[in-house]
Every structure is written in structure tokens, then in C-alpha cells.
Amino acid sequence: MNDNSPNSWESRADAHSFYGFTDLPTIEDRGAVILTHGKGPYVFDVHGREYLDANSGLWNMVAGFDHPGLAEAAKAQYDRFPGYHAFFGRMADQTVMLSEKLVEVSPFEDGKVFYTNSGSEANDTMVKMLWFLHGAEGNPQRRKIITRKNAYHGVTAVSASMTGKPYNSVFGLPLPEFLHLTCPHYWREGKEGETEAEFTQRMAQELEDMIAREGAETIAGFFAEPVMGAGGVIPPSEGYFQAIQPILQKHGIPLISDEVICGFGRTGEVWGCQTYDFMPDAIISSKCLTAGYFPMGAVILGPALTDRLQKASEAIEEFPHGFTASGHPVGCAIALKAIDVILNEGVLENANAVTPLFNEGMARLGEMANIGEVRGKGLMGALEAVKDKATKTPFDGSLSVSERIANACTDHGLICRPLGQSIVLCPPFIITPTQLDEMFSKLENALKSVFSEVA
Ligand SMILES: *Cc1c(COP(=O)(O)O)cnc(C)c1O
User: Fold this and answer.
1) Which of 21, 59, 286 best tests ligand 1's pocket when mutated (most atoms within 8 Å of CB)?
2) Nearest residue CA, atom 6 of ligand 1?
3) Contact criterion met (CB below 8 Å) for 417 and 406
4) What are phi and psi of 340, to 5 degrees?
5) Which ligand 1 atom is the nearest neighbour of the CA of 225?
6) What does the alpha-carbon distance between residue 38 and residue 148 come to, in Å, rounded to a whole number?
7) Cα separation of 190 and 198, whole Å?
8) Could you read off the pLDDT of 6-21 as tens digits, one per residue?
9) Which residues of the chain register pLDDT less than 50?
10) Distance, CA of 436 to CA of 440 (rounded, Å)
């Protein structure tokens, strides 16, 4: 597979480009896949091979890879005003309009928006906002941030500290003051004989105990993805948010919904907090915000945090934070168009229309002897491979089962992502029933061939 000749794209990629989050032995064997363009849900490599991208790029290219309206919105804004910041009381008209739109489509009655270039920076910004406002309110000891194991909140030093993945130990992270609760994954974490409702109660009790141990007066905020994405598509256990929110409220701890993946329809409703029926104090958005056509993140504060941050800022005459490209006018113009395309031009409607087919296909593959759990919500799902279905025993890590499945998929012209022992699927919202059939039949072939080798 790997074309090692010195001028091949694969060798040139190796020579001067770092790969993030990439299994280097796979690259050694197979070479990188170098892409040139896309069409609908497909991407094409330098050899002209076509791949159905069942991961929407990285969850974000929900309107496909060649949406004409989004490209036109970008071009029109580049022609009109190609760049500006949002410092010193100046900002582009597009930025004003996007903030109005985001507050309008948010679950909040009122609020304000702060822009970043990524989801990681949006989480970092939110943490700094909390530290800043608690300090200004005379509670500078309210510093600790609670998240969950397996959560993914990003890669900057603060957001990586929030991310509950063991790999962060190679950086000496998490930083002090970042605490992680048990992942609310009933199938994996539930105890023998424990019902799902009992499991949820145990998760809530663990939060109560952590708050009691640490002291509520030392805790700045609690962050959660409605459905954990990069943790392996893990929906919360039944009633999870209803169980934890009253505890947080009782102790004055803001609940921040990290909607970087769930926002803009991935779980069926516009926001994951709507799908799971809870009201956060703020929302973190990125990824689908621009349908992947521009790097942008946003913190959307609900009314209470807006007031508190406003007061804290007025006390020192500014909020001393911002990125050079925060609220970039081209990004904002694209986001305005993306929101319109997703919500009003049938993109989310299509996602919801094909979700029953997606669920059927997932359930069918879930019947295989080596699939232990099928899970998901809306148009995101995961299949977890196991050696033994009854005992939920995983395959030996050295077999790299999910990597092999993903590689076999690539060979069949399908891109999907190995995550732990799971395969993650989150196709673009524009996917058609025929393309979903193609996705499942390619995946089924890959699963069969790998399981026949390892089982
Ligand atoms: C991707 C992701 C982030 C980080 O976003 P980047 O743009 O990669 O920095 C944060 N939170 C969640 C839930 C994500 O999925």
C-alpha cells in the first residue's frame, strides 16, 4: 500500500508534516491518505480513490464537502471585508449578526457570545471566565473544574486537563484543580445486578461526595458533553443530567454544556441539552458552527453568567482576554450561512429523516458475535468490538482490532474512526439512504474479515 518512492505524496507527507492523533505503525505500513477534494459525503485522494467519509471529516462537515452556498458566502465576505478583530470596541457587522443569531437559536432567553478559533480555546475561555468572575465576586478560591473520565474537551493545556483520557499523562497533565468523575457509561461501568437507574444514582452520589470532599466553595464549574463524542460516542445513562443538575445548583456550581459535537443537530435536536432536557448555564460550540468551512469556536453564555461576567468586567473596566481572529468576519459570514443551511435548508431535516435507517443498520451489525454494544443518539453511533459478548471481555489490545477494522474500511473506500475498541460513525447530515447502505455494507465486510482473523 505505502508508496515509499521519494517523491510520492506519502513520502512527502512523512518528510515534513507531523501527524496528530495518528497510529504511527499504521502510517509506516500503509502511508498517509492525502486528499485533494470532496463531493457530497465523499472525499478523493491523490490517486483518484473515492472514500465515503462516515466521520464527516472530524464530526464537522455536516453539509458535505462541496456545499456551493458556503463557498459563496466565504467568497462574498472575502471580497467585502476579509479580516478584522473584535478588540478595543470594534468588530465586524457579521460578528454582530452572528451573535444575535446564536443567542436566537440557543436555548437561552438572552445571552452573549465570545468567539475563539477552536473548541479547545472556547473551553479555555470558559474556564478563564469562571475564574475571573468568581474572583471578582470575592470567591477567588473557586478554581476547581469537574469533568468526567473519557470526556473530550480539547488539547490546550487547560482543555486537555479537562479531557479525561489517560494519554494526557505523557504531558504531565492534568494540571492541579482539574477533577474527573466516573464516565456515566452504564454498559461498561455498571456493576453486576445494578439497574441503570441505580447506576445513575451512584454517579450522582459520586458527584455529591466529590463536592463534599473538595468543598463546594473551591469548585468553579462542571463541564459535560451531552453525548461524549471522542470518548467513543457515549450517551449519558438514563436520567443522568436530571440527577446531577440539582446537585450542582444546590452548590452554586455552573453547568457548562460542551456542545462542540452535539450542537447544530448531531443528536436530533439543535442542542444536545435539548435532546437530554436540561438547561445549562453556558454552551460551548465549534465544529458544526461553520459546518467545518472555517475554524471557529464560541462560548454562548446564558443570561445569569452574562450578567455576572458583565459586572466582573465593569469592575476592572475590561475582560482581558481575546484572540486575534476572534469573531473573524469571514468565519462569521460562513457560520451565519451554515446555521441557515443546517436549520432552514433541509440539512438537519435530512439527518433526522435518515436516522431510523442509521439505527437499523447499527442494530443489524450489533447482532454480530463480536459486537458487544451498539450505542448512540441521532446521527452518531459506535460499535464496540468484544472478544466475548456475554462477559464483555475486550480483545487483547495488541491485536489492534479497531485499527484493523478502520484500515479494512479504508481499503473498501470507507472512512471511519477507531476509538478504543470501538468504531465510530457520524456521517454528514446530507447522507442519502443509498449512501447509508453503502456505508453499512462496506463496514460489514470489513468487520467480517477482521473478526474472521482474530476471533
Ligand atoms: C473537538 C472537540 C473539542 C475541541 O475542539 P478543537 O476545535 O479541536 O479544539 C472540544 N470539545 C468537544 C466535545 C470536541 O468534540
Assistant:
1) 286
2) 119
3) yes
4) -65, -45
5) 13
6) 36
7) 9
8) 899 999 999 999 999 9
9) none
10) 6
Q: Is the omega angle on the peptide bond into residue 226 within 30 degrees of 0, that is, cis?
A: no
What local confidence, expressed as pLDDT, does residue 1 receive? 59
Asked whether 290 lines ligand 1 (CB < 6 A), one says no
What is the distance in A from the centroid of ligand 1 to the CA of 150?
A: 13
The domain spans of the chain are: 33-66+347-454, 70-344
User: Are 33-66+347-454 and 70-344 equal in CATH topology?
Assistant: no
CB burial of residue 4 (10 Å; 0-12, 13-18, 19+): exposed
Task: Say how many CA atoms lie within 13 Å of 239 toward its Cβ.
Answer: 12
Judge whether 418 and 398 are in contact, CB under 8 Å. no
118 lines ligand 1 (CB under 6 A): yes
Pairing between strand 42-45 and 35-39?
Answer: antiparallel
pLDDT in tens, 207-224: 999 999 999 999 999 999
Q: Identify the CA nearest to 19 among candidates 36, 32, 6.
A: 32
CATH number for the segment(s) 70-344: 3.40.640.10
For residues 221 and 254, is the Cβ–Cβ distance under 8 A?
A: yes
pTM for the complete prediction?
Answer: 0.97
Q: Which ligand 1 atom sits closest to the C-alpha of 58?
A: 1
Task: Please state which architecture CATH assigns to domain 33-66+347-454.
Answer: Alpha-Beta Complex (3.90)
Ligand 1 atom nearest to CA at 287: 7
